[in-house]
Amino acid sequence: MTFTQRVFSGIQPSGDLHLGNYLGAIRRFVPLQDTHETIYCVVDMHAITVWQEPNALRRATREVAAAFIAAGIDPKRSIIFNQSQVVQHAELAWVFNCIARMGWMARMTQFKDKAGKNSENVSLGLFAYPSLMAADILLYKGTHVPVGDDQKQHLELTRDIAAKFNNDYAAAIAEQGLGVDGEFFPITEPLIAGPATRIMSLRDGTKKMSKSDPSEQSRISLLDDADAIAKKIRKATTDPAELPLMVDGLKDRPEADNLVGIYAALSDKTKPEVLAEFGGQGWGRFKPALADLAVSVLAPMSEQMRRLLDDPETIDAVLRDGAARASVIAEQTMAEVRSIIGFIR
Ligand code: TRP
Question: What pTM, to 2 d.p., does this model score?
Fold first, then answer.
């Protein structure tokens, strides 16, 4: 027996999705629908580890759901839902809080980065964040998780939590016949996006494209219309040199490297293929081509997102339907976990 091949991934509803979220994550979720069971979650409980204004949280949750749908995730073939509607996430996270060790959590670089010098004053939830993330994945016995580079450490922690649970409760798992080759939770495989999908700021090629950059010009929002997309690309910072003939020539030219990378990602080509076409040419040729390409891929998506957001009832119905389907799997796992642990029901 083996575990069902099941993909789980989550995106935080923290507002203003941009090109980096699309190319680095959401777009990669789409083809997995052909090969795996796929569950895509808007992780609203993770979002509140830092303050979220309630109306903004509602809107951002719908925005992620709309982006999933507009990108081609089919709510019939995949499960799309928001985390807080399936209460078992919180329940399993508590169990994992009692499995994970303080020392494991204290090593998380994302926590250290986010807390900074302020670690006495951040929420307890921010510290326990990776435990909830492990619960998200393992509640569905997820075998594969597509994430960006920055989530690698959290996935390793998920594997450590699964292994420790399997080991601590090995006797109960065997007694109750609940394991697959002795394992109750699978040891999840990360599907890490390569550096090619790391999208940088349009103003500064050394900084990641980010919603917290004060300059709107630094990012392409997934809600930008065709005009805004084209304008931002035309105004993107570049060096004066023409495009190199080989990828080697992109070294130490972060802005050029980024724009070539965006062209490659949007056209499903490699950087060498893009340079075979544009190498030796100036920005006056390349930027309009990139603007046209970006508009042709992104504008229809942003239009559909805006249409969906004008009709929140439809989005909410998709999330409710997804949550109902997710709950069936989640409750099955949780019932087994309760009985393994020794909780009476
Ligand atoms: N921590 C992830 C991020 O910030 C979001 C997330 C929450 C997630 N739960 C998850 C990703 C489960 C993958 C699987 O990007």
Answer: 0.95
